Amino acid sequence: MIRASGLEKRYGARRVLVGVDLELPRDGFLLVTGPNGSGKTTLLRVIAGLVAPTRGRVEVDVHRGRLGFVAHEPLVYRELTALENLDLFGRLYRVPERRERIGMLLERFGLWEARSERVESYSRGMSQRLALCRAFLHDPDLLVLDEPYSSLDAESAALLDRELAELAGTRALVVSTHDPARVEPLATQRLVLT
Amino acid sequence: MRYLADVAALTRKDLRVELRAQDTLPAMLLFVLSMLVVFHFALPEGTGEDAAYGLLWVAIVFTALLGLARAWIPEQEHGVFDALVLAPCDRSAIWVGKTVATLAFLVAAQAVALPAFVLFFAPLDGVALAGVLLADVGICAVGSLMAAMAAAGRARELLLPLLLLPLSMPLIVGGVGSAVSTEPERYLLLLALYDGIFAVLSWASFEYVVTES
Fold this sequence. Notes:
The complex is a heterodimer.
Chain A lengths: L1 E10 L2 E11 L4 E5 L6 H9 L6 E6 L6 E4 L11 H11 L5 H11 L15 H13 L5 E5 L7 H14 L4 E5 L12 E4 L2
Chain B lengths: L1 H20 L3 H18 L6 H21 L3 H4 L3 H7 L5 H29 L5 H27 L3 H25 L3 H27 L3
Helix pairs in contact in B: 1-6, 2-3, 2-6, 3-6, 3-7, 3-8, 6-7, 6-9, 7-8, 7-9, 8-9
């Protein structure tokens, strides 16, 4: 699913990624760890196709419409409600039975009651749960999750644990986290950036 | 059909975001009316109508700049631009949606500004109005692309006028010409040609603007 060799990314004189090699099969689970500034976010953005590497090669064998991405920010419109945001992305991703799928995800991530409230009124944790709904909406073949546990309360984090456990082995997952113990048992590969 | 459905969804989203935030249109309206009032008092009495038409175009271009400077702000907040770029729709649909929404805001501002212009300065006939509409299309088409380019940089407010104003010169020439010339059809043709060429160029190059190669 993902094949990368000699990946390097520079921003000016600063080298963010140096010599990263990886190969992840379709049902693999890659856990990416490392201290702040080690290049975890950059690596995930390179894999998602949002950033081009300065050197090296990366091949991701999935159409961009089959990729789900969670970033540090929720990637949703603050002025729109959760329903409106998911409806927009559901249309763009051509999700079949869109309304049912949106309703099911909002229910599962505990946002159904707040579905018609604007995202600007959401807490950070609610925004993160909405970001997860957006990433899972089109049932992607490759999930790239950058710090998905960020801002989640214990209950939501446990829910995400269960979701990832269910998804592991059925599709490719790339997860970066400062709390590797949560997903360590699911990981088939580990990459420590320094 | 799918392309049009994507454009419709993206345009509807932009209109809805503006309806809720009310950041852009009220500012454009206030700005264009303020400019017309300033020009009204700044122009000496007995100044010809041609000068007034020129000032109308100053007001139109700077009002459009104001709207375009805010065009991609909702996408920049919370990083939504990344989510749009990752969606499987044709990326040019993002540009078309933004252009149509910006055009709607500009036309709405002009629906108030043009009657005010007629009240303060000079009449506008059908040909002059056609010139305004054609120029609006060109400004919004090129401006949406330039605003996306500027949004990627740090000095967005500075970069957008520097990119857009030189490209707007033919539109100003065409717009003023359609209002004051004895052969306005030549200027309307210039505007239509500009719209066609630059809309296609902007449509085709948007993909390269939003992706890092």
